[in-house]
Amino acid sequence: MIKNSWKKFGVVVVSLLALTIVGCSSASDEDKSTADSSYGEQMDYKITGIDAGAGVVQAAENAVTEYNLDYTVQTSSGAAMTQALSDAIENEEPIVITGWSPHWMFSKYDLKYLEDPKEAFGGAEHINTVARLGLKEDKPDAYKILDQFEWTSEDMEAVMLKINDGEDVKEVARQWITDNEDKVSKWTEGATKVDGESVKLAYVAWDTEIASTNLIGLVLEDMGYDVTLTQVESGPMWASIASGDADAIVAAWLPGTHEKYMADYEGQVEDLGPNLEGAKIGLVVPSYMDIDSIEDLVK
User: Fold this and answer.
1) What does pLDDT average to over the chain?
2) Which residues, 6+ apart, have CB-to-CB distance to 219 below 8 Å?
3) Would you tell me how many other CB atoms lie within 10 Å of the CB of residue 260?
4) For residues 252 and 204, is the Cβ–Cβ distance under 8 A?
5) For the chain, where do the domains classified as CATH 3.40.190.100 start and end?
6) Does domain 41-123+283-297 have CATH number 3.40.190.100?
7) pLDDT by residue (tens digit) across 56-70?
8) Domain 126-279 class, CATH top level
9) Range with the lowest mean pLDDT among 1-15, 36-50, 144-158, 280-294?
């Protein structure tokens, strides 16, 4: 009788242990699944974007459709987007942003692009210099400098990061020019200094374009030009080149981001080609988020 009782007790203990192990394993798997699926809930199914007219926002909206996501793209500004990113990282919270590179945030934070197997964002991009028609004839030396202007993502990010850290944009640009005389001399090679000719450059308030436009503006000033920089949104920026109100931009993201504007103003502007290769746009998340593809955002 006693032996039989101990046997029954042993069966009960073994069964309880088995249930506990299975239960813990199931709970662990369930917790991971819940953590993955709860990203959307924590973010209110929101992708944090920049201004509504930006090509990266339009591409993100296209991605939402292509991947059948239950997300909306919330537009704001570049500054508001990076502030939201900073706040999320500080609290190690999930966030998905409309990102692009080069950008200082990739130097400051540990970020990753979500894979885009359906190529909703297209492939690699480049940033081009675009001039008004007739600039080559009217101001050949300014045209030559703008045409020869080119630098790398690393160059641009170094300038952007210092500006973001609070340094004056003109001082940062001036220091970069001083430190990179060999590169700048290639941009101005064959150009003759002038005496106060005006040059008008337009740009959008993206960190990339703030850096590049202020930099090339100073180079033109050093060559004797009276330079005016005008900050506008993407649509007016392109319109100003087509109308001749501005002489040039160094801020044309092609072939994807500004594809619409390039098509709209075909034959009304002159594309001088890339001033920076290897640019990219897409959905970006902090590396601590346990997702790797846009497909992972699907419920």
Assistant:
1) 89
2) 145, 149, 177, 184, 187, 188
3) 15
4) no
5) 41-123+283-297
6) yes
7) 899 999 999 999 999
8) alpha beta
9) 1-15
